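Morning run. Coffee first, then this:
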Amino acid sequence: MVVQQYRDGGGARAARALAVAGVIAVTAGCVGAGGGSAGGSGGDGGGGSHASGQRAVAAERPLDTLDRAADVLAEAGGAEARTSMETAAGGTRVTIRGQGTYDFRTQTGRLKVVLPTDAAGADDHRPITELLAPGALYMKNRGAGVPDDKWVRIDTTTLKDGNLLTGGVTDPMAAAELLRDAGDVTYVGKSELAGVRVHHYRGVADLNRAARAASPQSRGALSAAAKGFSRDAVPFDAYLDDEGRLRKVRHRFTFAAEGQEATEVTVVSTLLLYGFGAPVTVTLPDEGDIYTGEIRQG
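And here it is:
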């Protein structure tokens, strides 16, 4: 995992630096989702039932249910998304939040990411616009010397975290793909999320196995993450509705921070999906709108 080196040794400062790294430095990605829900309204969000009728999710084998989660989302098409990432280092926590829409058929989305004031500072506290596409992340208003009217394009297959953390948002499709071929999966039980009955599963994702089982569009980035993380195991809690649609998933990533002995960084990334069937329009920037100059390292 690529994490910028920190020489100050202070836990609070390290956590702030890690949080900013994901959205301010091209080569680093550490930001987090809180231990609770990813925020706000959930609502059933429409989308209707599948033609095959409601799936008896709880009655199925947990592995079968989770293996199909990404495919079911692709059938559902677009959805609204809220995200939250929480970075913990040295006893200090920093949270970054996002909101937008994502199309699971095309694996494209548009999200607005908000940095906490204590991470970016008042001057750089503008929301960052992110466009997600297979193999690519586009960021605008990211600071670090990038002109306000320019985008930065990052090849997610070259990121050592596969864009699971770098953008401050775990790519929604990647979050679902991580559930494929998971281990130690148990069915926790039924609960309610924003007025919708959901089925709670707990398990441990394996980055290598998930990358091999992922769709072709996601495989490159997840393969990069499988090589870049020091730990393949990623504990998760996933909540699926009666139709097998992923409504909420929380992953816990842990790795060693470079430059600090015996310092472990935990990033908890939460994705909340609702409003299924929502229209999603993503127009990728023209080449002339993409910044190719030097980016300051925070």
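Residues 1-56 have pLDDT under 50 and may be disordered. Good start to the day.
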